[in-house]
Write a structure and sequence with these properties.
- With about 400 residues, this protein is α+β, with helices and mostly antiparallel strands.
- Helix 8 runs antiparallel to helix 9.
- The longest helix is centred in the C-terminal third of the chain and has 30 residues.
- The two termini are about 40 Å apart.
- The structure holds flavin-adenine dinucleotide (FAD).
- The site of flavin-adenine dinucleotide (FAD) has 34 residues, from helix 1, strand 3, strand 13 and helix 8.
Length: about 400
């Protein structure tokens, strides 16, 4: 079977890329190892994605934004960062920009479902679920993937969208920097007695980090980061005990809490691929850059990255050039690495700063917060990044 583009991985990045090729005249085969139901109606994975204005604009262009119900989009009007016991908060808001919010929080499974719904009815796209890729080979002449059932698929371009421990990346022989930090994140939706006023809080306390992301109503997504063994214990305790412990850990700031739905655990690992492109192949989404979720960049970055690749591929197709040529792929690689590296390095520096429990480490983060508040360019820089279209 021959198509123009072969995508491995039907997560949000792979689906967005398939959708971004709509109307280009290119045929696309998308391989996903999960069953169809799991990508058409994905289960709630607890992740609330803080979308920037740019991401909302891209999702809108793709036709996915309008497919998400308004009540599933929660405005993020302001954000504050707290350190330890200090009452001081570094705050970000829309600051006279005229916008109603810094961004919107939307559940990951809603974004996936909306993207799938767009791609499912797109002419020229074939989605193969339950796909087990046995081997993949790329060369100057083309790409060939063989499925476990023996089916051979050929294409001009291979796109790896198969997450941070990417199988495609390994098969392409691309090395990656992988940092496992021995910590995990637990996410859970909670109802609380006091209102959050649509303000997100990131609290870097001693020996724990807790983020509260405001959802519609008196509800938040609690995101707790701790050493992995402690997270396992928190995930296993009885619901009422969990809510009480969260309330205590959060110093009762939002009043009494009640758990709503399940708890989801994510062991943390950051990954940076040494290359985002190889002969007739490119990596997108977490397969290219696996961010620590603390700065909420992962999907936003994946979405803008896939758009860079789609633009380069579409331009080549329009002018009847080879869509898998080095020129096309290097253009994507250069642009995406330039955008991604400062965010990746900056986020990792923040993680190091906020997990350093030595006295000088604690003093340093206090200083960084104070400095951030005093230097207007820091706050306006963050605001511009969130709000740029
Ligand atoms: C707790 C948490 C909170 C987050 N919050 C935010 C946030 O606020 N803002 C933000 O921008 N980002 C956030 N992120 C990051 C965001 O969720 C990811 O960046 C995003 O999901 C990556 O999408 P992806 O499509 O690259 O990978 P994935 O979502 O991992 O999808 C990969 C897909 O590939 C499939 N696959 C894997 N291997 C194969 C194979 N060999 N063959 C076929 N299919 C395969 C998988 O089944 C899966 O469907 C958060 C992440 C976490 C864990």
């Amino acid at each position: 079977m021959q198509s123009d583009v072969l995508i491995i991985g039907g997560g949000p990045a792979g689906l967005a890329f398939a959708r971004a090729l709509n109307g280009s005249g290119l045929s696309v085969t998308l391989l996903e190892r999960q069953p169809l139901a799991a990508i058409a109606e994905p289960a709630d994975d607890g992740r609330e994605i803080a979308l920037t204005h740019r991401s909302m604009a891209i999702l809108s262009e793709l036709g996915a934004w309008e497919r998400i119900a308004e009540e599933d989009k929660a405005p993020l009007r302001a954000a504050r960062v707290l350190n330890g016991q200090s009452p001081f908060a570094l705050s970000f808001d829309t600051g006279g920009t005229g916008a109603d919010a810094l961004g919107r929080l939307v559940s990951n499974h809603r974004i996936r479902a909306a993207l799938y719904a767009c791609v499912a009815q797109q002419p020229g796209v074939e989605i193969r679920s339950d796909a087990e890729v046995a081997s993949v080979r790329t060369g100057r002449e083309g790409v060939e993937a063989v499925l476990a059932d023996g089916t051979r698929l050929r294409a001009k371009l291979l796109v790896g969208a198969d997450s941070r421990f990417s199988w495609v990346r390994d098969k392409l022989g691309i090395a990656a920097e992988i940092q496992r930090i021995g910590r995990s994140m637990l996410v859970a939706r909670v109802e609380h007695a006091r209102p959050h006023d649509s303000v997100a809080t990131e609290w870097f306390d001693h020996h724990q980090t807790i983020a509260m992301l405001p959802l519609n109503g008196d509800r938040s997504s609690a995101v707790v980061t701790l050493p992995s063994a402690q997270i396992e214990r928190l995930a296993a305790i009885e619901e009422g005990a969990f809510a009480a412990e969260l309330e205590r850990r959060y110093r009762g700031r939002l009043g009494a809490m009640r758990l709503e739905g399940g708890r989801h655990v994510y062991p943390l690992a950051m990954t940076w691929s040494r290359h985002f492109a190889a002969t007739r192949a490119a990596l997108i989404g977490d397969a290219a850059v696996g961010m620590h979720p603390v700065t909420a960049h992962g999907f936003n970055l994946g979405l803008s990255g896939q758009q860079l690749l789609a633009d380069a591929v579409r331009a080549a197709a329009r002018s009847r050039r080879d869509i898998g040529s080095d020129t096309v792929l290097r253009r994507y690689e250069r642009a995406h690495r330039r955008a991604a590296w400062p965010l990746y390095a900056g986020t990792n520096a923040l993680v190091r700063l906020y997990t350093d429990e030595t006295l000088p480490g604690r003093a340093a983060r206090h200083m960084v917060l104070r400095l951030g508040q005093r230097l207007p360019m820091v706050r306006s820089g963050v605001r511009e990044m969130l709000m740029a279209r």
